[in-house]
Amino acid sequence: MFNIDVTKLKDIDISIYKYILKNRDKVVFMTIRELSEELHVSTTTILRFCKKAGFEGFSELKVNLKKEVKTESYKSTLGEIDIIDEFIKNIPLAKKGIEEAKEAIFNSKLVLFIGTGSSGAIATYGAKYMAHFNKFALSIDDPYYPFNLEALEGAVAIILSTSGENASLIEVSEKLKEMGIKTISITNKKTSTISKLTDYTINYYISQEGYNHPGDNFLGYSDITSQMPAIYIIENLSKEIGKMNEEKFGK
Length: 251
Known about the structure:
- The protein is an alpha/beta fold.
- The protein has 2 domains: 6-72, Winged helix-like DNA-binding domain superfamily/Winged helix DNA-binding domain (Arc Repressor Mutant, subunit A); 83-249, Rossmann fold, CATH 3.40.50.10490.
- The protein has 10 helices and 7 strands.
- The strands form 2 sheets. It has a 5-stranded parallel beta sheet, with helices on both faces.
- Helix 3 (32-39) crosses helix 4, helix 6 (83-106) packs parallel to helix 10 (228-249) and helix 7 runs parallel beside helix 10 (228-249).
């Protein structure tokens, strides 16, 4: 939705950006004054942000936001999408990202796999899998984990997010960047916010899937986008590290 380089935003713009991402369903029904009061900023500041995001004003931003919210109100896609075929077509793009990122991982002293929700479970798997290739790896599924710069010296962080727009993981990416920690993202699209924030990005480009719970189930819609590509990338990335170990130290 946003045509914006988040790395060039001021702190106040970042706070507006994060709030809109996290509260899209709410913002589409707010006036600019209501949003300014919610964020404790002037309406002029919000209008300035809209310009930076590529919109003429707040009304145009809301129109585009409504389209996005409607698109992401997932309809059930069970059996309609062949994820395997989609991903196979884009494996060369994923492998290009792996090739670019593997050196940073090989030269690191510690690899942190970071994710939340289902991506948190994949982060745990990733750390255990990579550990088989003589690499000290840990997983974190708490975005508010207290990072310590001294303890992370020589570390590289792999951030897992299907959408690349998870607000808490955006904060983690920014924090690690400020600390000077090398970051690698594994996300669906290169245009996502987290992809833009990290030093390296590995993307897999598959359709977003959802399940519409039948009846009056309070769960509503669930994001059921496959984690298979992330697992494939982690396993191939780990094997590349193994090959690099063999070349350096011998079999």
